[in-house]
Amino acid sequence: MKINKKIEDAINKQINAELYSAYLYLGMSSRCTEMNLKGMANWLYVQAQEEMTHAMKFYRFVLDRAGHPVMPAIDGVSTDWKAPLEMFAAAYEHEKKVTGMINNIVDIALAERDHATASMLNWFVDEQVEEENNTSEVTEKLKLLGESKDGLLMLDKELSTRVFVDNTQPAGKPQP
Ligand code: FEO
Hints:
By secondary structure, this protein is an all-alpha fold. It has one domain: Up-down Bundle (Ferritin), CATH 1.20.1260.10. The chain contains five helices and no strands. Helix 1 runs antiparallel to helix 3 (84-111) and helix 2 (38-64) runs parallel beside helix 5. It is elongated and about 55 Å long. The mean pLDDT is 96. The structure holds MU-OXO-diiron. The site of MU-OXO-diiron has 7 residues, from helix 1, helix 2 and helix 3.
């Protein structure tokens, strides 16, 4: 069934928001690289890659439902963050905002009795729990270590191990 206009508009807005998220994390990653915090730069770079896959999942869904993706401008982001805590605290706040946006689309889908969209959105509802947890956990660790340079280097090492995995697609399903 063709997607209705209200849901198409909301998902198109979300594609833009996910691309903005990728941009936001890329800006943070670049700043960490400049600060010689390569592990944090890696973690944020992987996060930017994940956000791209979120945008693509919504994009494919619009096309699968015979909708029309629109591509408005993506807002600019800061690349002048002062400290890791400032970045990760902003990331956590951003993820809470994204959760609200996803919940809002769920509300629209249920009001429109569009169960296919509601079902697709379940994946994002679950994903947002992880997105909030991940950014909150790093934020809390940064608060704990305070001014400790050793603590910062240890956390940086821990975050260097994150690797990118596209978990938006069932294994073996070809990309368009
Ligand atoms: Fe795609 Fe971080 O939410």
